[in-house]
Amino acid sequence: MLDADAPVTDASGHRARLRARLFADAEGLHDHELIEYLLAVALPRRDTKELAKRLLDEFGGIGGLLAADPQALLRVKGMGDVTAAAIKIAHATSLRLIRARTRAAPILSNWQALADYLHAALAHDTIEQFRVLHLNTRNMLIRDEQMSRGTIDEAAVHVREVIKRALEIGSAALILVHNHPSGDPSPSRADIDITRAIIAAGKPLNIVVHDHIIVGAAGQVSLRAKGLI
User: Fold this and answer.
1) In the 8-state DSSP scheme, what is residue 182?
2) Residue 10 pLDDT exceeds 80
3) Where is the MPN domain (predicted)?
4) CB count, 10 Å around CB of 80?
5) What does the pLDDT look like over 72-84, one tens digit per residue?
6) What is the rounded distance in angstroms from the CA atom of residue 226 to the CA atom of residue 224?
7) Looking at domain 113-226, does it have CATH number 3.40.140.10?
8) Which sequence spans correspond to the domains of the chain?
């Protein structure tokens, strides 16, 4: 009797070997092998090797693939709701794991964990979004909220809404974050201006803005570290 996830193709032996390697040394698997096996869980009776390679080529690697919009995934030949859901659940799980590290210690002393989380969450997003990280008096992360999601090159940010939300949550400090879908994290004049406006609005209310971090596929830029705020 066939194993529940054995495909009705000559890939049975290949998949068993892949599973054995996964159990023995998951780090040793290539990106296409990881995606191949993930897809195999969703499509147990299909050879998923070529589909995995096609997806990685289409989205420029595993980071772009996991972050891809579901509708973009569905446009790839061979993809359906079940396989797209498998990709998105893998992405959501990985983000939750990385985000947990950012909650383990005060953000200002745990900067690398924050950088890793922001890269995973935003670096490959094709739509610009603006997020606010809310911190308590100990600089522990209490909430990560998306304030706006814009067009491919613009996200509307309203100073009043950022401060209003901080007051509702009881935030003592904020870290502003947004991504540049172009991949280049260099700050624009508008990025600097909106940051300074939020700093000014929060100051009389004792809400500190620690930084504004811009994320792109090419890296991250801290406006604080650049001396721009």
Assistant:
1) T
2) no
3) 107-229
4) 12
5) 999 999 999 999 9
6) 5
7) yes
8) 11-95, 113-226
Report CA 16 to chain centroid distance, whole Å. Answer: 31
Give the list of residues 6+ apart from residue 60 with CB closer than 8 angstroms, or none. Answer: 124
pLDDT tens by residue, 124-182? 998 899 999 999 999 999 999 999 988 655 667 889 999 999 999 999 999 999 999 99
Q: Check: CB of residue 49 under 8 Å from CB of residue 32.
A: yes
Maximum distance among all Cα pairs of the chain, rounded to whole angstroms: 71
**Residue 98's closest CA among 109, 110, 88?**
110
Residue with tokens 């797209």: 84
Tokens describing residue 44: 């147990």
By three-state DSSP, how is residue 152 classified?
Answer: coil
pTM, two decimals, is 0.77
**Residue where the block lists tokens 């604080």:** 224
Q: How far is it, in rounded angstroms, from Cα 50 to Cα 201?
A: 53
